[in-house]
Amino acid sequence: MAWRIYAADLICILAIQLLTQAFGITNDTTISQAVVPDFSVQGKIYSEKLNPTRSDLLDVDAVTNSLYLSPLTFRSNYDEMLEKFKIYIYPRKQQDFGSPEWCGDQRFRDLDKHGASFYENLISSDFVTDDPEKAHLFFLPFSLDASGTKSTASVSRFLRRYIDDLKSQYPFWSRTLGADHFYFSCEGILTDSSRSVVELKKNAIQISCYPLALSVEGAKARFFPHKDISMPPVESVTDVHQTPKLQQSDGESRTIFAYHVGAPAGLDSVLQLWKNDPDFVLDPLLPEPNLYFQRLSSSRFCLIFFGDGGNSSILVDAVKFGCIPVIIAQGPLFDVPFQDILNWQEFVIILNMRQVSNLKQTLQNIPESQLQKMKTLAIQASEHLRWHSTPQPYDAFYSLMYQLWLRRHTIRYARRHISS
Questions:
Q1: What is the pLDDT of residues 355-387, one digit of tens each?
Q2: What 3-state class would DSSP assign to 41?
Q3: Domains, the chain, with CATH or none
C-alpha cells in the first residue's frame, strides 16, 4: 500500500511540474526568465496581420527561438480557446439587479474608452453564452468610476451590495467564492473588511489598464499578478493616426540613441543627466503625430519610467516602430500586458532606477546582433498589443481572452443539500 501512495504522489508532482513548464509559471512575481529567441526566418520579418491559419506563425522546425513563453502550448491552447471558451455575462439591464448608477450597457460606454472597447468586443463575440451551465467564466458587468468622482467608501458600499445581491439570486459565485468570475476596473480596486469585497478582490480576476499610474507599493495593493490581467492602451497614438509602414530599420538608420517623451513627476534630476547629451532626445510633451512617428522610427531605444501614466501608450507605440523599450523601475514589473503569453525580457530592457547613471554605457554594451533580434521581436509583439473595432486574430482582444482562458481552471465546491 505504501508504494502505491508513493507512486500516486510522484505522478502528481510530475504533473504539476509539466503544467508549470507549459504555462511559464514561476515562483517569482516578476516576468518569467524563460528563453525566447529570434523569430526571423531566412531574413523574413512577420510584421503583417497575424492569421490563425498561417503555418509560419509557429513553425518550430524553421526557428530555434520564439516570441512566446511556450510556443507549442500557446498555439494549441489558442485554437482550443477559439473552439470551446464560453463566458456568461450577468444581466446588464439597469432594472435587473445592482445599482443603475454603476451597471448597464450605457454605463460601460460612457465610462472610458478602455472599458467600452473591451465590453463592446466581448458582447459581440462568439465567446458569450446564454447558458451559465456551459460557461467557463462569468463576467460581472459593473463599471467603477475611474475619474475619481466616487469616494472609496461609496465604491465599497456598491461592491458589497452588488456581490450580496448576486449571491442571493445566482448559485455560481458560491461554487468558487468568485474565482471563476472576472470584472473590469481600469485603476484596480482596493479591498475592505466586507467578506464579499474580500472574495471579489482576492479571488475574482481583475482586468485593469496598463500602466497602473501608482507607486510600486500602491500598484501591488490593486493588482495581483497571479490572477489579474493587464490590458494594453486601447487608443495608442499609432492607432488613432495613420502611421507609415513599419520597417525593420538597421542600426545605422536610427540616428537617435535614446528617446523619451513626458515629464514624470519627481524625476527632473534623472532627465537632467541626458538633457545636454546630443544622442538623447527628450520631449516634455507629446509632439504632433508625424514628428512623434519620426522620433520613434529614428530611435534605437525608448525610455519608459514604470508607473509614469503621462503617456501610457509609449510602450505600445515603441514596439510598433521597433524602438527597443527600456523600462526603468524601482521594483519588479508585474502588470505588463500579456505576461502569460509574451516573453517580454526578450524584447524589452529592464533597468533599476539605481542604474540610470550608467544607462548609456549599459545600452552601448549590448551586442548589435542582440539588438536586432530584440527589434524584430518587438515589432512582432506589437500585433498582440493592437486593438481593432472588429477584433482580428491574435490582437489585443484575443490575447486578453486567451489570458482569461488560462485562468478557467478553478476549484468548484460541491453543492450541499440540507434536508428540511
A1: 888 999 999 999 999 999 999 888 888 889 988
A2: strand
A3: 87-231 (no CATH), 237-385 (3.40.50.2000)
